[in-house]
Please model this.
Amino acid sequence: MTVPGGYAIKTYRYLRMAMVAMIALLAVSLVIEWSKTDPHCLQTSISAYYYTPVRAIFVGSLITIGVCMVVLKGNTEPEDILLNVAGILAPGVALVPTPGQGRCHSVPVVLGDAAANVTNNMLAVFVVGVPCLLLAAVFIVRDRIRQPAGWTPMYVLGLVVAALIFGGGLAWFLVDRAGFIANAHYAAAIVMFGCIVAVVLLNAEQFRRKQRTHAVRHSPANRYSVIAAAMVVVPLLMFGWKKAFGWEHAVLWIEGTLIVLFAAFWISQTQELWNEGLRQELPRSQATPSPLRSSAAE
Model:
């Protein structure tokens, strides 16, 4: 018989694996589109595949990943805030296309009215998002009243950060629609990937403390440090190559690298926390082992 905490742990597993599955789905769709171009060619960015038959998978997978990141409770409050911010921004990356349809398509591009699509889709996101933020505020106040001992100001900080980003996006959308349509994709993508890199760095630090306390079998390398280093170094090298020698598909490969490493991160975290759900946050000064969290009920 599965205990209630076991159901929560299974939910964490499925959320993490769902994000990996969405990345695999997008990758397969991209390969299918590439195989149907004649001659074989590539768009200059993954985002430009919005203008190809990949569009539905591109939009759907990004929105699904965004929802998973918001729903998934981070191992620490800072990680939870970063995941929420990244998840809030994911629909902007998905629903606001990059300007320019590119030159590589398996079929002729039928654009329709891109501005009308963005207006409809993003307005729907904002209309639904506002009550969601208000509901989150109600939950925070309720928890503060019912469980004052377990409440921390980080809950309020997370809500404020989410509200500022969401409110800033809404104001931009209402005041400068043309500027929003032209630039919101890039702004959302840059901040979203920055939050993801920060999440990996936080996991590297927490896993290092976990190794130090011998709460898990010591491994020769901190898996999260390797992923975080690759997330920073590889894109910088690619960008440097583009600047020095010119490289039309640099953005495509930078995006692809970050997405693959994002999947590697969730695979690693799923494996590490398979039976725990969440990692217990260890203080920096802790020098003795402490029991790991056996339930993901929080």
About this structure: The mean pLDDT is 87. DSSP finds eight helices and no strands in the chain. Residues 48 and 100 are 8 Å apart (CA to CA).
